[in-house]
Design a protein that fits this description.
2 copies of one chain form a homodimer. Chain A is an alpha/beta fold and 336 residues long. Chain A has 13 helices and 12 strands. Chain A is 43% helix and 15% strand. The structure holds a DNA duplex (16 and 16 nucleotides).
DNA sequence: TTGTATGCGTTATCAT
DNA sequence: ATGATAACGCATACAA
């Protein structure tokens, strides 16, 4: 672990000189700068992030907050893909990633405490309960934050285009001839509200009837809940001809339930998911769904967060809505 | 951000006293200790990890190295589940997690450099190319490491029981009557070698013929490679009646290829995967596979790593082999 | 029992 | 152009 002091000693110069040379300060002679750089390379010098952070109050690290209420956490394919893209974009820009949590060890802390404890320069907030006071406290602190799929006034948010996604799904199944469309939606979140609203608007615009009983409360990423609601829907006197699921993964629950009931997709009933994860595309019949652009979502989140960190004065918070694309599969048949 | 100095000032004591009181030093009077603790709580004091790390040379943070050659990285369900369990176990024990990479920003560094840069107390190494010199350098350094699915002499390794897994799969399909069993294996890694060896041993023990042409080189988590090898196998004059895939995910490639060829699973050919991820269990027919215990693997890795960090003298490296379980699905039919 | 002094590695200010 | 010095927040050896 060679330090700046080692280099200074070897070259017979002061530590200040070495530091300046390494950081490209203008008041160092080109020859000295070169000597220092050469020595640093030879001695495998690497700055100590800890010392630097202590001195500068900046860590060159960002925190990522990922708490999935269903407990599936990182293993939720949609979010792990986003994490992956946040990570690679951050690295390129010189930041590494720390996973943020509550209550690390015996320390009782909330998210903001953890962020301060590690001096994270900013945080990407994804997949959390946005009503959690700890989350609110973090967002309202002066730590730069970027939220995913949730808007906080005065902050940057990256939104997957849920409204357009839902609208295009409804239009798609409408064009296939469906008029009795049920929607199993996720628990009450901003995303869910957006989708519900878009669902209703699209149905109205197309003149599709909207019986209340076709709107079922499911849970994201929860196959049991979808199974239950699927059973409920199909036992209705007037069952839907198409069911929209909260997400691709939860469709599995419905799929299995339908099989149990002796119903085939899309022979007896059509279905569509949301997310566009590989899982859905691997199913047979291939799932009709709306693909969210996880790669761009993650990259943009990291990019904007780092912009805010590095140029706080010029930074203007914005809401970005990223389009996805309809992925027509084989689970929506022409309705009779 | 209140510091130890703020507390000292408010209480009219020295910073040393505050520090000692907070750390439960024995040479502080109970009353003083109590006063300090109370003030700290009131002032929302939280230690600054950076300063502490600089002083102590320990960060209370561990690094996690996760590089998937196929580029799927964290989005590989098997690994993201392990990461999730490493994370929750570490948190409980007072450590948080930094994702380790090469070349962060303009700094050219390898894994060990990154670990030193952040002063990680230890590293869990998973899913990497273990022949990469950067990985070797990290393992051979004196940073405590725990590897997953790969043994390095003198280090702790957590092994999923690949040998038993492969053996039980072979036995299972044998009992279903299969004698022409092909194995599409992953790229050449320790895990692959273990499975290949177990496959051969099991076949020998059961008296199953092993034509070389039934042993195909696939790639983990790569559907295209499995598709290609599947096509090859099924065009053989004497095609197998059962194909074992590198993992559940890559089976998808084979499944789709078989469908394209007009062959049904398990009607025309049987198949099995490896991993036991939800994806496989969601498929219809449900995939026969061997489930690896991601939860225990991750927890044990974190537990052992932290033991080594905290009690380096007493620590004895060990190799742990964690059993999984056969998950009989519907993709292996009784052979004629 | 408490306080003083020192240093961890770095950078920034101010002299020289 | 270079160097001496202080400071970031904390913990510890040693002094009082």
């Amino acid at each position: 672990m060679t330090t700046i002091t080692d280099i200074a000693r070897r070259l017979g110069v002061s530590r200040a000189t070495v530091s300046k040379a390494l950081n490209g300060a203008p008041d160092i002679s080109p020859e000295t700068a070169e000597r220092v750089r050469k020595a640093a390379a030879e001695m495998d010098y690497l700055p100590n992030a800890t010392a630097r952070t202590l001195k500068l109050g900046r860590s060159n690290g960002i925190g990522v907050l990922f708490v999935d209420k269903t407990g599936s956490g990182l293993s939720h394919e949609y979010f792990s893909r986003i994490l992956e893209s946040i990570k690679s974009e951050s690295e390129q820009r010189g930041y590494d990633i720390t996973l943020i949590t509550k209550d690390i060890g015996s320390f009782r802390m909330d998210y903001l405490d953890h962020v301060n404890y590690r001096r994270c320069d900013g945080v990407v907030i994804a997949s959390v309960d946005f009503t959690d006071p700890s989350v609110i406290r973090l967002v309202e602190s002066d730590v730069p934050t970027v939220t995913l799929d949730r808007i906080f006034p005065g902050h940057t948010a990256i939104m997957s285009d849920n409204a357009t996604g839902m609208a295009s799904l409804v239009r798609h199944v409408y064009e296939k001839g469906h008029r009795r469309i049920a929607f199993i939606h996720g628990e009450d979140t901003y995303v869910t509200q957006t989708r519900l609203q878009a669902f209703r608007a699209a149905c109205s615009a197309l003149g599709i009837p909207q019986p209340d009983v076709y709107l079922r409360p499911g849970i994201y990423h929860d196959t049991a809940a979808s199974a239950k609601e699927t059973a409920f829907l199909m036992r209705l006197p007037d069952p839907p001809t198409c069911i929209l699921y909260p997400d691709d993964y939860s469709y599995i629950g419905g799929m299995n339930e339908l099989e149990r009931m002796g119903l085939s997709v899309p022979g007896d009933v059509s279905a569509a998911g949301f997310d566009g994860i590989p899982l859905g595309q691997a199913l047979r019949p291939r799932l009709t769904t709306y693909r969210q652009d996880t790669d761009r979502i993650g990259r943009l989140a990291a990019e904007k967060l780092i912009e805010e960190i590095e140029r706080p004065e010029e930074y203007v918070p914005e809401v970005f809505t990223l389009p996805g694309e309809l992925l027509p599969g084989k689970t929506v048949a022409e309705a009779i």
